[in-house]
Amino acid sequence: MSNTDMNMRGKIIFYEERNFQGRHYECMSDCADMSSYMSRCHSCRVESGCFMVYDRPNYMGNQYFMRRGEYADYMSMFGWSGGIRSCRMIPMYRGSYRMRIYERENFGGMMHECMDDCDNFMDRYRMSNCMSCHVMDGHWLMYEQPHYRGRMMYLWPGEYRSFRDMGYGGMRFMSMRRIMDSWY
């Protein structure tokens, strides 16, 4: 497999112990439940591509974006106690980016169309909350705090009518950024 093919596919290696010790599991695609491969995961290394990792099976719970690099003790870095339980590979995307964000569920209230990163919804759009969105183009990360901080959610093309129904009822999303091909 060429280096270009590897970058397009992505590869992440999970380790049972901190500092890349113990049994490991290599993953080059989505994995809905890692418990059949390892009992726990305390460190990982992203060799190529970008991934979202989740603290619950089936891509549920808290999410964290990972790109190429080493995460020797990610649990203290993220503040997680249970470890990674599932992961999703983010496909490389080259093209335009377009998303509509809405103040209320079911595409209600104030709407803004976005084509670039926004570090603060309140400052740019005078919007104190974002509760639904429609991603037309590209892959995005949405953050609960301004300036790309706090918990995050991965979004790809599709309609997201209710963040509350998706399990984000107590969160207010306040910033977003595009997942760019230069991150791979």
UniProtKB/TrEMBL annotation:
Give the matching SMART domains.
XTALbg
Identify one Pfam family in the record.
Crystall
Q: Which organism is it from?
A: Ameca splendens
| InterPro entries on file | Beta/Gamma-Crystallin, Beta/gamma_crystallin, G_crystallin-like
- What are the protein's UniProt keywords? Repeat
UniProt xrefs under Gene3D superfamilies: Crystallins
The record lists the membrane-crossing segments as none
Could you identify this protein by its name? Beta/gamma crystallin 'Greek key' domain-containing protein
* Family designation: Belongs to the beta/gamma-crystallin family.
Q: Where is the Beta/gamma crystallin 'Greek key' domain?
A: 10-48, 49-91, 138-180
